[in-house]
Design goal:
Family: Belongs to the binding-protein-dependent transport system permease family.
Pfam families: BPD_transp_1, BPD_transp_1_N
Strand content: under 5%
Subcellular location: Cell membrane
Largest sheet: none
Oligomer: single chain
Number of strands: 0
Keywords: Cell membrane, Membrane, Transmembrane, Transmembrane helix, Transport
Protein name: ABC transporter permease
Shape: flat
Radius of gyration: 27 Å
Structural class: mainly alpha
């Protein structure tokens, strides 16, 4: 071993140039850069959502007219408008709104006369509980249905599953909710039609909210699995004598999961946002029902906060889904 080779750093180039970083270090730098870019984009999206919601809700009318009786005088309206801070210039209200966002200070609700943060904290657990239950129903039904349909491609059982899936995807959720209430609550008296607090109250809203997501995930998983099952490494696994189910579960499902994870992530955001109609049908006391009430009362701070909450949910879920690609598919990690 020469003297030059002893002094040379472990990763120096053969031509004497600066040392090259290890592959693992380069991947870490790429991942960090991707995370920073995504975070910057997420903050920009949230700023746009906050700005649009701030100005759009003010086009709906004057909330003072709804808070006061019809025979209120102009002086009473002016006093209430001043106490709510609505008499200040619009740009000043906008700056104050943006200034409070980093501290999660959305102001006071005009209708409940409480901090918006407190009102949201009271309603958010119910919505999260409903969305989590709907997600569990989605995964429990959609994944086996997608695998079964892919393995039985072209057969009557495949067409039967896809017909049910298409029917679920084309049916409006509120109509599904009303139908479930008529059958299981009014007809069979097996489950409550509305309310909150027990597992029985959760069943019908969760199924209603999950119907559309089940259809989307099952269809995508079926088509993705069919593409993967025709690839060379699957034929190699079959040639080794593996059974059809083992080939799908051990070799096909992971490769087919990349687009499915994307859709499942988007469906998580849709479950939270789509809970508005479901909560209204079943009188579920969540953020969705609160949003309807806030819009009807022209409660500007509460509407702005709920819109930002839904936007932040989509942004965070998309960010997590994007980052999960690196762990599911090494080709994505090396291409960044």
């Amino acid at each position: 071993m020469t003297e030059l080779s002893l002094r040379q750093p472990p990763h120096a180039t053969h031509d004497g140039g600066p040392p090259r970083p290890r592959t693992r270090d380069r991947d870490a730098v790429r991942l960090l850069r991707t995370v920073l870019v995504r975070l910057g984009t997420a903050l920009l999206v949230l700023l746009c959502a906050a700005t649009v919601s701030f100005f759009l809700v003010r086009l709906s009318g004057d909330p003072v007219k709804l808070l006061l009786p019809p025979d209120a005088t102009a002086q009473q309206e002016a006093v209430l408008r001043g106490s709510l801070g609505l008499d200040r210039p619009l740009f000043t209200q906008y700056v104050d709104f943006l200034w409070g966002l980093p501290r999660l200070d959305f102001g006071n609700s005009l209708f409940y006369n409480e901090p918006v943060r407190t009102v949201l904290a009271d309603r958010l657990p119910a919505t999260l509980q409903l969305a989590a239950a709907a997600l569990v129903v989605t995964l429990v039904i959609a994944i086996p249905a997608g695998i079964f349909a892919a393995m039985r491609r072209g057969r009557p059982s495949d067409r039967g599953v896809m017909t049910m899936v298409l029917l679920g995807q084309s049916t409006p959720p509120f109509w599904v909710g009303i139908l479930l209430i008529l059958v299981f609550a009014v007809g069979l008296h097996a489950l409550p039609a509305s309310g909150y607090g027990t597992f029985a109250h959760l069943v019908l809203p969760a199924i209603t909210l999950a119907v559309y997501s089940v259809a989307v995930v099952a269809r995508l998983l079926r088509s993705s699995l069919i593409d993967v099952l025709s690839s060379d490494h699957i034929r190699t696994a079959r040639a080794k004598g593996f059974g059809p189910l083992k080939v799908v579960l051990t070799h096909g499902l992971r490769n087919a999961s990349l687009p499915v994870v994307t859709v499942v992530g988007l469906e998580v955001g849709s479950l939270l946002g789509g809970a508005i109609l479901t909560e209204q049908v079943f009188s579920w006391p969540g953020v969705g029902q609160l949003t309807i009430e806030a819009i009807s009362h022209r409660d500007f701070p509460l509407v702005q906060a709920t819109v930002l909450l839904f936007a932040a949910t989509f942004v965070v879920v998309n960010l997590l889904v994007d980052l999960s690609y690196s762990f599911l598919d090494p080709r994505v990690r090396t291409s960044r």
